[in-house]
Specification:
The chain is of the alpha/beta class. It has one domain: Vaccinia Virus protein VP39 (Rossmann fold, 3-Layer(aba) Sandwich). It has seven helices and seven strands. A seven-stranded mixed β-sheet has the order 3-2-1-4-5-7-6, with helices on both faces. Helix 3 links the parallel strand 1 and strand 2. Helix 5 packs across helix 6. The longest helix has 14 residues. It is globular and about 40 Å long. The two termini are 31 Å apart. S-adenosylmethionine (SAM) binds next to helix 7. The site of S-adenosylmethionine has 20 residues, from helix 7.
């Protein structure tokens, strides 16, 4: 992901009605005005996946999380170009490290990680979003019966993510190493920007669904 500093992106985000600015733990029912399930994508990039989900599933509340304002701006520009913005969609411009300030215990029904940054150096392993350090934060905010879904074309990152499960107290419910060739796991699949890019050059997409 190119991280050019886009002039004014922070100001656009600060003024956007779709971005939640204050720690919002325990407040999502109030923010959406309903008690629909809450699904979040951490590291959403330009937002195609979360926006398409919000359009397809109006009875689920979707929150896209992105660390960089210059990237989140791209998602806001997509909303700008839409005739009607789905009412079940909000964004957070935060680092995933802060996630427990934004969601209360068990407040989230599903977590999506899509094409998370690989951080290839061993000493950066704990920065990887499917690492055991992050799984312990997801453990707090995810409902007891909630699930986490992770997709990537990076086999090294995927193997690492599988190895992290047991020590962190999670288990795999379903795993594929070629999502687009798997009729069951690709049913209703919504593509991300990176998924489109990497599958179009022939990279197989790995996916797991995990729970505790
Ligand atoms: C490789 S991109 C994938 C974007 C999108 N999910 C997709 O599949 O097209 C990873 C995104 O995760 C964001 N990201 C990485 N670490 C993050 C963190 N700790 N908290 C929030 N976002 C993060 C990056 O800024 C980047 O936009």
């Amino acid at each position: 992901m190119r991280l050019r500093n886009i002039t004014g992106s922070e100001e656009v985000i600060a003024n956007s009605e779709y971005v939640i600015h204050e720690p919002s733990s325990g407040k999502w029912k109030e923010i959406f005005g309903n008690d629909h399930p809450v699904y979040i994508e951490i590291g959403m990039g330009k937002g195609r996946f979360i926006i398409d989900n919000a359009l397809r599933y109006p009875d689920v509340n979707f929150i896209g999380i992105e660390k960089y304002s210059s990237v989140l701006l791209r998602a806001l520009q997509k909303l700008d170009a839409m005739e009607t913005v789905p009412a079940n969609l909000r964004f957070l411009c935060i680092d995933a490290k802060e996630i427990t300030e934004y969601f209360g215990k068990g407040e989230v029904d599903k977590i999506y990680l899509n094409f998370s940054d690989p951080w290839p150096k061993d000493r950066h392993a704990k920065r990887r979003l499917p690492s055991r350090q992050f799984l312990s934060l997801y453990d707090v905010i995810l409902k007891k019966e909630g699930k986490l879904e992770f997709k990537t074309d990076n086999r090294g990152l995927f193997d690492f993510a599988i190895e992290e499960l047991e020590p962190a107290g999670w288990k795999a419910e379903a795993v594929t190493y070629d999502l687009h060739a798997d009729a069951v796991m690709s049913k209703d699949n919504i593509m991300t920007e990176y998924e489109e890019k990497f599958s179009s050059i022939g990279n197989p997409i790995c996916k797991y669904i995990i729970s505790r």
